[in-house]
Amino acid sequence: MARFDSRFDELKLDNDRAIVPDDYKKELFNDFGFVVRGQFETGEHFHLWTFFYRQIGEEILIDNDSCQTTFIMVNYDENEKLTMHDSPYTNKGHNIEDYFKLGELKFKDTEDSVEWAAGGRTMTSKAPTWHIGGEHAGVAADVTLTQRSKPMFNGQPMQTIGDEGHGAFIIHLHATGTITHKGKIYKIRKAGAIHERICMAGHVPARMQYMSGRGMNWLSSFGELMSFYIKTSDVGRTSTMMLHLDGETSFTIGSDKAWVEEVGFWLDPKTQQVNPHKWKVWAVSDRGRLDATLTAYGRGYYTWTRLGGIVIVHQILGKGDVKFTRSDGTVVEERHVFSNEYMRTLYQQPAN
């Protein structure tokens, strides 16, 4: 697995550009996208995952451009939110039949903006503001996003990738606007969001390997006063955690300092798999200690077909009770909404 050392860096528009040329031939995983998690004015809770990918290399079987939309919308009462449900969802983009030919993902760069577009979806960066527009998979968006946290960068600086290298960043955002589903326009009452940008050029680590075991969590949780992000991997027991509180963003590295523990499970009637639906998250740093109990009540899922196996990806939404105890003993407690991308290798073909 690629080594991604975390750091904060200046947010520049150039980080959102294509980075590699349009005719790039080496292995590549180039992505740009957003997760929006919130509530509509009519009461429904939602999770929108919308991403662009350019994927080149033997592992992904067919070189492709792709646009993915996963949309989950539920309206459960407080008792129903105590457990997971076989929630309806929309997903399109990661099946092989959804792939576009290389070149269908278009990049439009100007001095003050970057636009990625494919499949009817557009995403525009004018960092530190962004916009999701267009329609894909029957889900239309007119969503404006503004900076909440500092960006946390991993790997090398994006502008140094050149012909080969690995770089990435994530940032927490505020989201406003509308989402249209099945012909009905829903106005966002409040929502948090994540912007992710990854460019792995020249070499792309095999997902079969680092998503085996209990897999990975890619989780963000949002409240009025604080937000946090945590990524964990069972293989190697790695962990990266970012906290935004009191107008300050900080991060913690290492599974001895931050972790996600599975504490509740359910049998998914669609997959006939027992999957986690409740977690405890904890983290310690010089700033204090975070403790969160997160309970999911809605999900969608899909698979990544790769050379030699299949990864199953669960998109999950729920609520959480979050407490942060500052190093001076003062406490912040609040109710959160969260999204979790829970990924693990479903099947890996034997090498021989």
The overall pLDDT average reads: 96
Give the terminus-to-terminus CA distance. Answer: 22 Å
- Count of individual beta strands: 22
Uncertain residue ranges: none
The gross shape turns out to be globular
Q: Could you give me the name of the CATH homologous superfamily?
A: AttH-like domain
Summarize the amount of helix as a percent range.
under 10%
CATH architecture: Beta Barrel
Structural class by helix and strand composition: mainly beta
Description:
By secondary structure, this protein is an all-beta fold. The chain is built from 1 helix and 22 strands. It has one domain (6-348): Beta Barrel (AttH-like fold). The protein has one helix at 207-210; strands spanning 6-8, 27-40, 45-56, 64-74, 89-92, 106-109, 114-118, 121-126, 129-136, 139-147, 152-155, 165-181, 184-202, 216-222, 226-233, 238-245, 248-253, 258-268, 273-285, 288-306, 309-326, 331-348. The strands form 2 sheets. Strands 1, 2, 3, 4, 5, 6, 7, 8, 9, 10, 11, 12 and 13 form a 13-stranded antiparallel beta sheet that branches. It has a 9-stranded antiparallel beta sheet with strand order 17-16-15-14-22-21-20-19-18. The longest helix is centred in the middle third of the chain and has 4 residues, at 207-210. The two termini are 22 Å apart.
Task: Please supply descriptive tags for the structure shown above.
nine-stranded antiparallel β-sheet; about 65% strand; 13-stranded antiparallel β-sheet; mainly beta; globular; AttH-like fold; about 350 residues
At a glance:
Helix content is about 0%, strand content about 65%. It is an all-beta fold. Strands 1, 2, 3, 4, 5, 6, 7, 8, 9, 10, 11, 12 and 13 form a 13-stranded antiparallel beta sheet that branches. The chain has a nine-stranded antiparallel beta sheet with strand order 17-16-15-14-22-21-20-19-18.
